[in-house]
Design brief:
Blueprint lengths: L3 H7 L12 H4 L6 E6 L8 H8 L1 H15 L3 E7 L3 H8 L6 E6 L2 E2 L4 H9 L14 E5 H10 L7 E8 L5 E6 L4 H7 L8 E5 L6 E3 L12 E6 L3 H6 L3 H11 L5 H4 L2 H4 L6 H6 L5 H8 L10 H6 L6 H14 L6 H6 L13 E2 H8 L19 E5 L9 E2 L6 E2 L4 E4 L9 E2 L4 E6 L2 E6 L1
Parallel strand pairs: 1-2, 1-5, 2-3, 6-10
Antiparallel strand pairs: 4-11, 6-7, 8-9, 8-10, 12-18, 13-15, 14-17, 15-16, 17-18
Helix pairs in contact: 3-5, 4-7, 10-16
């Protein structure tokens, strides 16, 4: 067990829940609780649900490996109560040291701060991480990869849902580096001509228009939507536009703040004050913009709360960018001083997933995305070496080299936060740069 850190690092395991933080560093800790986050709150994404239904034993083994390594005496698997098949599958493999925590079907139930608070009763400090209160949280797919890493198997595929305007919605293990366009073809192709992709889900996902965008180790889903749909148009609005409209139309009703999940947990985030900062400059603006720093970018304010369909979320995002660039970022200690008690109305302000889907115009997509078990074998892959967090790996292959699936093609930096990359198909290296292109032999 002493070499679990090295096994996880060598396998290239990073957080599959979205952030992509190198997992080996996250489990270099002593904690009392390990949480498997399977709440999966983004509408139309099913990859965590499918993983728990089909790979519960491997996921539970991953939890136990992390518990043993970190010294944790308690494990928790967080799942939405509606996912009965996943719950039954997990229950069949639960040891006494691991319990099941059933969550409401609300958004954003899968937010790390929400999961920790509801399942343990503890609150992560402002600007902090679960480790600060003796907890490690891992996405269920990450734990599956930890299980495989302990057996010498590197990360070569990402479990991803393809949904929306496609012929056959599905969830499948896609080779890292495969193009989104090819992934769409596995789902039978798009059913409309003029479309965009939401990369990562309809709430927090970004619009992608290039079909050659590659699958990465943090890819969780792509949603096909018509380019002219209201949701797609809102997500493609420019910074100039949402700032101008916000400056002219915000009436300071404060619903964005009153429905903000982090505000309801007591954290120092008030989107309506950040919107007010669009009207101010100098010291007054500084006092308002700091209320953006604790934003988790969940999009409840913009896509659910605001009656005028303004964009407090993106105003908070660009405000956080500016605070960092201007050296005005508050320390965790300063944020913690602004933190309050949990709001007394918090339990009444969860956003039901079904109502959210109707608000987003997604209610017609009622089909699940079952696990696809057919062989997915692209003719080529372009494996990006860009690191989500940390230092990119260094290529160890050259053009013309022949590689096996799972072979290391880029090595991690030994002196920095870094993980290696591995070939997701067998073939010949065609190019080496910011990505490594491999074509099937």
């Amino acid at each position: 067990m002493a070499n679990l850190i090295q096994q996880v690092r060598d396998a290239g395991v990073i957080g599959a829940g979205g952030a992509g933080f190198p997992t080996y560093k996250k489990i270099e800790a002593r904690v009392d609780t390990v949480i498997a986050n399977g709440a999966e709150c983004e509408p139309l994404l099913f990859k965590d649900k499918m993983l728990m239904e089909h790979y519960a034993a491997e996921m539970i083994d991953g939890i136990q490996l992390v518990m043993h390594h970190t010294g944790a005496s308690k494990g928790i698997v967080a799942i939405k109560h509606k996912n009965r098949k996943a719950i039954d599958a997990v229950k069949a493999h639960l040891p006494p040291s691991i319990s099941l925590f059933e969550m409401e079907d609300v958004y954003p139930a899968g937010d790390e701060y929400e999961v920790v608070y509801h399942s343990t009763g503890r609150r992560i400090p402002s600007g902090g991480i679960p480790l600060h209160i003796g907890v490690v949280v891992q996405n269920v797919e990450t734990l599956y990869h930890i299980h495989r890493a302990s057996q010498g198997q590197p990360v070569t595929h990402s479990l991803m849902t393809v949904h929306g305007q496609v012929k056959n919605p599905l969830t499948a293990w896609f080779p890292v580096g495969m193009s989104y366009g090819e992934a769409l073809q596995v789902a039978g192709g798009a059913t409309i001509d003029d479309f965009v992709l939401l990369d990562g889900g309809p709430m927090m996902g970004k619009v992608v228009t290039e079909l050659n965008t590659p699958v990465t180790r943090v890819s969780s889903g792509i949603i096909v939507l018509g380019r002219a749909t209201h949701l797609a148009e809102r997500k493609m609005q420019s910074e100039l536009a949402f700032k101008r409209i916000g400056k002219s139309a915000c009436d300071q009703c404060s619903l964005c703040t009153e429905m903000c999940p982090r505000y309801l947990l007591g954290y120092p985030i008030q989107p309506h004050l950040v919107m007010r900062s669009l009207l101010t400059t100098g010291p007054m603006s500084d006092t308002l913009t700091h209320w953006a720093q604790a934003c988790c970018e969940c999009n409840i304010c913009s896509l659910w709360a605001c009656p005028e369909e303004l964009d407090p979320r993106n105003v908070c995002v660009v405000t956080k960018r500016d605070l960092k660039q201007q050296g005005k970022w508050l320390s965790a200690e300063q944020l913690q001083k602004l933190t309050k008690d949990v709001h007394p109305m918090k339990s009444y302000r969860g956003v039901p997933t079904a109502r959210l889907m109707r608000r987003l115009g997604l209610h017609k997509f009622t089909a699940e995305a079952p696990l696809y078990t057919g062989k997915i074998a692209p003719n080529s892959v372009g494996i990006s070496l860009k690191a989500s967090v940390g230092v990119p790996p260094t290529p160890v292959v050259r053009v013309g080299d022949h590689v096996r699936e799972g072979e290391m093609i880029a090595t991690a930096s030994e002196s920095a936060l870094s993980v290696p990359a591995h070939a997701s198909i067998a073939g010949q290296v065609k190019s080496v740069g910011q990505s490594i292109v491999i074509t099937k032999a």
